[in-house]
Amino acid sequence: RGKRAFIAGIADDNGYGWAIAKSLAAAGAEILVGTWVPALNIFETSLRRGKFDESRVLPDGSLMEITKVYPLDAVYDTPEDVPEDVKTNKRYAGSSKWTVKEVAESVKEDFGSIDILVHSLANGPEVSKPLLETSRYGYLAAISASSYSYVSLLQHFVPIMNPGGASISLTYIASERIIPGYGGGMSSAKAALESDTQVLAFEAGRKHGIRVNTISAGPLRSRAAKAIGFIDMMIDYSLENAPLQKELSAEEVGNAAAFLASPLASAITGTVLYVDNGLNAMGVGV
Ligand code: NAD
Q: Which atom of ligand 1 sits closest to the CA of residue 14?
């Protein structure tokens, strides 16, 4: 039987989530997607109208099939957590069962189990503010959307993951080195995500035989990255300074994720894997 993957955090064909979905699909996995509720309409419409068809092409010439798209807001765990103003918000009212617990229940109902869980989402409302100017609200919102969202996803999906399953998240080197501009508590959120990767690897490994790893990815011109505002500078910096002087493609991260999710990585868990043309290894700019 082929493997089944749930990928949280795809809303267009430009980000890491999409590339990971493609690499997993190319390796024979069935693809389920969790899309942020406010972005759901445009994503599904674009899919249906063929706007992504060019980017759906797999190495064998076939098109990646997405079996089902689930609305998801990973900031809320259960319906009881959703505040009234969100419930009645126009962009949310049209969808239902999009809290983490409900999405896991829906996936269980529809498919029974999954083998691979991917967390490819982050959000920090004050990302463009220096940490020194970040509000408590902004900081906690960044941690909630970018770090706890992963704890919650695993918490709810591990019970429907088959033994030998694997989970992957995406992180950024701003967790451990100073990257001015990656503000709003987003650097803190990535530090939490990386630390949690170890603890979750232990707990999910011991209890369910599931592996948990994170990919520290180099800069990519995704929608989220463009919103931060310094992405072109980071890409240029990497081109100038990394051991490999080429632009990083999302596909390279997708392929690393497919490897980590596969039996080829059966002894790898609790790690941060750098997929960044080696930039992390540099001590000085050159
Ligand atoms: P992206 O815009 O493709 O993906 C981010 C996704 O998160 C979007 O689809 C957005 O709709 C979704 N999202 C935001 N809040 C959400 C919520 N509450 N519930 C559900 N979904 C939500 O951008 P990306 O850069 O590919 O980001 C994917 C991951 O890669 C993130 O964790 C990001 O931090 C990480 N990353 C990105 C870069 C980069 O340079 N782009 C570098 C290293 C790591």
A: 3
Report the side by side order of strands in the sheet with 66-72.
66-72, 30-36, 4-8, 114-119, 161-171, 211-217, 272-275
Collapsing DSSP to helix, strand or coil, 166 comes out as strand
With 80 as the cut, is the pLDDT of residue 1 above it? no
Q: What is the pLDDT of residues 194-234, one digit of tens each?
A: 999 999 999 999 999 999 999 999 999 999 999 998 999 99
157 token code pair:
């999906």
Region of residue 171 (left: phi > 0; alpha: psi -120 to 50; beta: else): beta
Beta-carbon contacts of 236 under 8 Å, excluding residues fewer than 6 positions away, are none
* Residue 32 CB contacts under 8 Å (≥ 6 apart), including other chains: 4, 5, 6, 7, 66, 67, 68, 69, 70, 107, 111, 114
Please give the Cα distance from 194 to 279 (Å, whole number).
18
Give tens-digit pLDDT for 97-129.
Answer: 999 999 999 999 999 999 999 999 999 999 999
Query: Which member of 137, 182, 237, 274 is catalytic?
Result: 182
Residue whose structure tokens are 């910096």: 237
Q: Which atom of ligand 1 is nearest to the CA of 190?
A: 34
ipTM of the shown complex = 0.99
What is the torsional sign of CA 93, 98, 102, 103?
A: positive
Q: Can you tell me the distance from the alpha carbon of 121 to that of 210, in angstroms, rounded to the nearest whole number?
A: 21
